[in-house]
Design goal:
Helix content: 10-25%
Order of helices and strands: HHEEHEEEHHHEEE
Number of strands: 8
CATH superfamily: Methylpurine-DNA glycosylase (MPG)
Structural class: alpha+beta
CATH topology: 3-methyladenine DNA Glycosylase, Chain A
Number of domains: 1
Distance between the termini: 30 Å
CATH architecture: Roll
Length: 200
């Protein structure tokens, strides 16, 4: 898959967050179309970089087009794309995907092969990547990939294609945070059932 170039990320984080809707994330044999994102900026109290440059936030202040991967609540791995010019900390959290490749591997990693047969295959597929922790588990993304280059891999973000060239996008407030929760910095593919709840 052709990768988005670093220049794509070297722009205002809100523009990148919106334009990542419909792009593709691939990791190994697995891939999904991005259907939900959230933007974070160093001037935003909900952003890790709000406290300044630390060992944890160093990647956020680095060059655009890098993966910022961190552990949330000691449980869930989160994937972010670093944006804006080098020295400005900003990133887009990838919140949900529509699975398109490696679905059997995703299902096994998420432990959805058993116990939900009554809900049907389509219901299980919608659960694979309908949240930021779910999608990293499904794609097999680990903390060891923090700081990796999204233009060369192992995590690669590719451009919109096919029916995703001009997606209808909804804007809403970010979820799961307490600071700056009123900012309309969440973007979702309209009508997509893989978007995490609550949907805007």
């Amino acid at each position: 898959m052709r990768a988005l170039e670093a220049d794509f990320y070297a722009r205002p984080v809100l523009d990148v967050a919106r334009e990542l809707i419909g792009c593709t994330v691939s990791h190994g044999e697995t891939a999904g179309v991005i259907v939900e994102t959230e933007a974070y900026h160093q001037g935003d109290p909900a952003c890790h970089a709000y406290v300044g440059l630390t060992e944890r936030t160093r990647v956020l202040f680095g060059p655009p087009g890098r993966a910022y991967v961190y552990l949330s609540y000691g449980i869930h791995t989160m994937l972010n794309a670093v944006c804006e010019p080098d020295g400005i900390a900003a990133a887009v959290l990838i919140r949900a995907l529509e699975p398109v490749a490696g679905i059997d591997a995703m299902t096994a990693r998420r432990g959805l092969e058993h116990g939900s047969a009554d809900r049907g295959a389509h219901a299980r597929e919608r659960e694979l990547c309908s949240g930021p922790g779910k999608l990293t588990q499904a794609l097999g993304i680990s903390l060891g990939e923090n700081g990796s280059d999204l233009t060369v891999g192992p995590i690669v973000l590719g451009p919109r294609a096919g029916r995703w060239l001009e997606p209808a996008i909804l804007t809403g407030t970010r979820i799961g945070i307490t600071r700056a929760a009123q900012l309309p910095w969440r973007f979702c593919a309209a009508g997509n059932r893989n978007v995490s709840r609550p949907r805007p």
